[in-house]
């Protein structure tokens, strides 16, 4: 084929693909333009997760009528004059591509007025083609309305994710900017309902409380550090407050939200040895650095940056975060008494789960006719052994409790060796099978809470939970909406008596990193597994002998006791033969 120049329409849509990936990209560009214009009030309206409408209104400087058409042209900007300015960028936008890119894949309307003008102006852009500038009445500032995003690029529209996912991306973006700019009043509406509203009074902790709940807002640890031209402010979570993924790790550099690997690595290094594997902090940190020390012209979305002194920045962030952690939550040391001959108390300890709950009729009881249940288990084990011709079990053999080590693993003896049971994974499996058995019989008993618990979630998470309320009610929870992004828990399944309602709700809206392949085709089972994971006893939680016995009995009664619902093993088997080889009783290994 002969070489030819692309039409302006095609080249504009190609360029738009680098800047406008999804509705959240539009919201980001328009919000940053409003902040660059000095806005103190920003209102954002979203319809159909941004597919039908995205409207951003601000009270910033506005755009003069004679510059309105130029503002929608590609590579037109007021923030750069010469190439040298690229190394001293102090604004969020500078490429001059945002409005042109958005206008090429939508029906865009810009209405604006500067303070010195008596009336405003309006310009409509459809598919990259601008109309005539019209004079209209308008307040000082700019209203940018984007309708029918990707209407002329159906392939891009088809690749958008569900409304819940796209809306969550928008909410996540706006909550981050609300934290970064506490002096700006943000208001986000979905149709007629406000989903986020900040006071704009400069109080970041109040915004944290509005986004994540009062309790989370109180727990967050403040970071304030200065060193050789570097400044770091914001909040990090204590080691007791974590998430299952890195999505709540937020960094701003000179007021710009960035997703820079080196900054995340520095933060995680600050938490080194303080968090369990697979758990991540919730943070909102704001780095200030001289503009000439950072290159923001790396990617069209401006989400990546490069530092002139990478090691210096890494070390500063790591030390500042670590200092805040140790100042508020000193690292505890292991008492030597734990390794001595300290007498073991027989007093029952509260572990968050009522182990005395009556078992279902088809399960082995914790007390009473326990010997009969064990005889049945032994008989089942014998049958499995005779069928296979070897001492390997599809389930769990008869186990004799030895004790607990590391407050995490239960040690038990079986007829064919030693078993190490992960108490958290095992309890997950027990809770999951009990809950699903009750679900299949349509008989999940519920227990009302003495005092209803109020839970506040970030806007994106609240949207997801709202869609899952029927599931919760079906599984014995009684949850209702209780204001903006707030829910009230009135009852929980009896199976989870003593558990934390807030944890149960948050488990449903977190993205887990564990392999959930065994449950992918069963939405209810997957969500049930998430709740059970959150409410199961944790590693590091000391259990009494009675509780350890109860957990072993329950695990023996499970249909699939060898793994937790997510596929992780609940136990490790050390055979007698292997132990004898290790101790040299059967020759060299």
What's the gist of this structure?
The chain has 589 residues and is of the alpha+beta class. 34% of the residues lie in helices and 23% in strands. It has three domains: 8-201, Heat Shock Protein 90 (2-Layer Sandwich), CATH 3.30.565.10; 212-328, Ribosomal Protein S5, domain 2 (2-Layer Sandwich), CATH 3.30.230.10; 370-577, 2-Layer Sandwich (formyl-coa transferase, domain 3).
Structure write-up:
There is one protein chain. With 589 residues, the chain is an alpha+beta fold. It folds into 3 domains: 8-201, Histidine kinase-like ATPase, C-terminal domain (Heat Shock Protein 90, 2-Layer Sandwich), CATH 3.30.565.10; 212-328, Ribosomal Protein S5, domain 2; 370-577, formyl-coa transferase, domain 3, CATH 3.30.1540. It contains 17 helices and 25 strands. The strands form 6 sheets. Strands 1, 2, 3, 4, 5, 6, 7, 8 and 9 form a 9-stranded mixed beta sheet that branches. It has a 5-stranded mixed beta sheet with strand order 10-11-16-13-14, sandwiched between helices. Strand 13 (249-253) and strand 14 (256-258) form a beta hairpin. The relative contact order is 0.09.
